[in-house]
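Me: I hope this is not a bother. Any chance you could explain this protein sequence and its structure tokens? It all follows right here:
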Amino acid sequence: MGITDLLLQIGERDLNSERGVSCDGELPAASDPQLVERAKAARAGLGSKAMVLGHHYQRDEVIAFADIRGDSFKLAQAAADNSEAEYIFFCGVHFMAESADILTTPNQKVILPDLSAGCSMADMATASQVNDCWQVLGKLGVAARTIPITYMNSSAAIKAFTGKNNGAVCTSSNAARAMKWAFENGEKILFLPDQHLGRNTAVLSLGLTLDDCVLWNPWKPNGGLTDDQIKKSKVILWRGHCSVHGRFSIQNIKDVRQQVPGIKVLVHPECQHEVVSNADVVGSTEMIIKTVRESAPGSKWAIGTELNLVSRLANENLDKQVVFLDKTVCYCSTMNRIDLPHLVWVMESLVSGRLVNQIKVEAEIAKYAKVALERMLALP
């Protein structure tokens, strides 16, 4: 189903022209008509020694071969729980495959079908930049009272930094718990790398004010902040964001509510603060899926998250009206680098006895990153 068909589900045939939506964003058909059969044959040849994990934002052609679909942490846990699987094909992005490698046994090998499938948000915080920030906090005498919390959408190196400095990892579903825990163990939080999740959680879940939060820009001296701003702040937000969720706007919400009476707006907490503040429901990827599935027949939803997932929700919930919140097509470009040709290539290579695209986190980094992940798992 193309995006036009998806939008037409709500019965508003003029919606496409009003919102500027066309079929230009549809993914092309596979160039090899035998690709699906090759994928089936390779998957069958690998049997139980292999496991295919598919992130919710993946293309349908990839999800069709996933043994389990889920968000990044659910999939990493699934890999760790399946000790029988020697090979883990992680259809996601690089930081997800890293987390799976950290949580699985040394006997398991994690494979990323396309090594260029990264995450723009994770790339917005490098280890050297974060270390520079930490040095500034140390010079100001606040590092010892600051607890770093890093979002799951970060590199293994950032997770390791967090683990070394008494911090924890969080997901979009437990960010509030993680930040409450941090305040129980310190006076200040350094939240990496998504400013929007950190801000939304601090203000809307913990009851802090926007003035309690400051934004650290790694490209400016002192993060672009005065010493006094840093000392007075309660949450230091890293200047990072999701390129997909960050594009949704308050105008998108106004437009869809005007065009579709009675529609509810459901968004991810990685969206901008004004979008989250004006949505009807806010939640993680898993919560978004659960909300739509459990909603009443005939309910109407405008969803602010990645388009592959929104399209899939529409197809799997035909008794509801599901539309994409934005007026233009927007896939996660890095996630979409994982496609059926790449998946077939890595599976066929393994069938022929050649292991390609293995993700292996360096031992010292993995050690401390696992500490941060285990602290998250131990959160009350």
